What does this fold into?
Amino acid sequence: MNHQKKFLVILFLLLVSVSLFSNVVVAENKYILNYQTKEDNIVVTTKHAELYIKKGYINEEETYTIAKKIEKGIRDLKIYLGEYNKYNFKKIGKIEYYIEDHHTIKSNAIPSNGRVHLSHVHLKKSPYIHETAHILLDKNGEEIPDVWLKEGLPTYLNAKFAQYEPKIIGDNNNLDKRTQQYYQNKEFEEVLEYFPKPFYKGVNEQRGYYWLSASFVKYIENNYGKDKLLELYNARRKKVATIDVLEDNSSKNEKEGTKRIDEFLGTSVEKLKEQWLTSL
Ligand SMILES: [Zn+2]
It folds into this structure.
């Protein structure tokens, strides 16, 4: 082979490898894999999700936006949770998101079959990370930790990873500001007094309880680290069917072998709560 030929062969190989490499990069960054119009729904597929969106509910641009956000959110959560991600995509398949044009049911997640219902998506402030976190955190939904952990961690993660337009959401997804709002409000005195026991009446107090739980979770992460927090989430588990709201902190329903919080963090829940409140 003469020099010129050698040079051409090398150039060719170089170009092939560059194009292969850039294809891989493009595939990783490509969030939407398929967009199909079916009889009642628009079906959008990403690497980890399948969205069923009621036809005529949101426009094409909004459809792409929510699908990209969900796919990006799942990737962020998978990285954050690492080995604590309990959802097996290979075995169970993609997470299914049902986006309806009626809003009679609140957004929710059913971990046992990997389904999420999102309501009010047209308002562009659905808690899509919160519901997705439930799916990744609780494998079958038969066992859950205490309510403050079960709802506090997804609320914290939604504040951390969910993307909303500032002009729409304002400070509504800012954990520190929300915490102050409830902490300083006399109306939530009782919620705080019983905290972390889930003591709330009505939607407003429940919302306050969720945000306070998220703040408590963040405090634990900041002071003990993410691994300890996730270990704690997975250690204190109870059978769902036996949970009675006010008995949440009793040991009655706990599975055998469940560790107490002080065994994990070297401090009692009461002490921890005191330290957290002082830090606010
Ligand atoms: Zn929830």
Q: What stands out?
A: Residues 3-29 form the longest helix (27 residues). Residues 22-26, 241-253 have pLDDT under 50 and may be disordered. The chain has two domains: 33-141, 142-280.
